[in-house]
Amino acid sequence: MRPRIPSPALRCLRNGQLPAMTSAAVRPTIILQSNVSPLQLSQGPSASYASVARATVPSATAVKTYPSTQPPSYKAPTSLKTLLQRLYLSLLRSSPLTIVFQHSSVRPVEWIALRRELGLVLNKVDAGLPPGSTALAPFIKINVVDTALFGVAVRIADQPAPGDKLWAYGASREAYRATISLKKKHPLAPLLIGPLALLTFPALSPPHITAALDLLFPVKKVAQKKGFDPLAMTALQKIILLGARVQERVIASPRVLDDAGIRYLCDLKSVDELRGEMVALLTSVGGGEIVRTLESVPINLGRTIEGRRKMLEEAGRGGKVEGEVKAG
After folding, report:
1. Nearest residue to 247 (alpha-carbon basis) of 135, 89, 118
2. Are 86 and 170 in contact (CB under 8 A)?
3. How far is the C-alpha of 131 from the C-alpha of 107, rounded, in Å?
4. Which long-range contacts (CB under 8 A, 24 or more apart) does 179-182 make?
5. How far apart are CA 278 and CA 25, in angstroms?
């Protein structure tokens, strides 16, 4: 049989009060557990439960319940939104060039056909590269994104954490609150409208960029080629080029390019081509000629300074001679 609580004590508990204690041996124990101040002691044992709770809350909230490397997420860590935000953030950080385009009612079979045609074109570019070059076709992908979540990921990727560092956990509350002010100020914000898709490049390779643009966004409309998938041709009529994001370094402000800027980027030479031209130049000229060319700059500068010094000395001597003649 359960022990019954006396009626006066039961009424005190219902009213949010501590029951009066008659035993002096019990009173010190309760005071030590609740950390009651001397002022509350003078008010007697009828201190409310709220005052006891206020006295014990600071010690409980001081303990962190999460690891330092993964602070609390702005959304639930197991939700789809958090997963997509982290995926977009990783995609932006690993892609020096991200082309943003808008799509309208593109069916899944049309996306599959478009990706297949893009892969065939890029594989041809890889086949024409010099031996030893890295094949980029398997890593150039078309990704359909959620516009709102992609905007959040772009702000976090482009806004460094305190100390000019990357955010350790991009989906944290601190990262979201620190970048919410860039929602309308970000250079890419005017393009984040409507259903979007991305064409990401793992490296800035002008031949691959040119091939992808000629297929997806040709300057002049061309007739359907023989063997071209009709579903891919239908998908090409439903996409519009908006712009591109170029990331020069991991921690740096990105550049937003329009259609003309992307076309200009395609006209640049690749890194391998520039390295080849540099090696050819060094081989044809020779090491001695390069050394003489580099040494000629300080030598010419020293000769110019010496000539100027002599001119000033001669001008000073001429002024002194004229002064002596007038005095005589």
Report:
1. 89
2. yes
3. 38
4. 179/152, 179/155, 180/155, 182/155, 182/158
5. 92
9 in helix, strand or coil? helix
**Backbone phi, then psi, for 223, in 5-degree steps?**
-70, 160
Distance (Å, whole) CA 33 – CA 56 = 9
Tokens representing 26 are 């019990």
Tens-digit pLDDT profile for residues 230-276? 999 999 999 999 999 987 654 455 688 888 888 888 888 777 778 88
Q: What phi and psi values does residue 13 have, to the nearest 5 degrees? A: -65, -40
Residue 199 backbone zone (phi > 0: left; psi -120 to 50: alpha; other: beta): beta
Phi then psi for residue 139, to 5 deg, are -105, -5
Residue with tokens 């100390």: 163
CA dist., res. 183 & res. 124, Å (int): 40
Vertex 325, ends 324 and 328: CA angle to 5°? 85
Distances (CA, A) of 175 to 64, 143, 258: 19, 24, 28
Question: What phi, psi does 166 have (nearest 5°)?
Answer: -75, 150
Its pTM stands at 0.63
- pLDDT tens-digit map of 33-81: 444 454 454 555 544 444 544 444 444 455 666 666 666 777 877 888 8
Q: Bridge-partner residues for 198, per DSSP?
A: 100, 143
Which of the 8 DSSP states describes residue 36? -
Please name every residue paired with 48 in a beta bridge, in sequence order, or none if there are none: 17
Beta-sheet strands, E only, within 73-167? 97-103, 141-145
Using alpha carbons only, what angle is made at residue 240 by residues 237 and 242, rounded to the nearest 5 degrees? Answer: 170
Render the burial of 250-267: b for 16+ CB within 10 Å, e for the rest: eeeebebbeeeebeebbe
Cα Rg of the chain, angstroms = 37
The secondary element (H helix, E strand) that includes residue 125 is: helix 108-127
- Using DSSP, state whether 282 is helix, strand or coil: helix
Look-up: residue for tokens 């593109």? 106
Tell me the C-alpha distance between 172 and 110, whole Å.
36
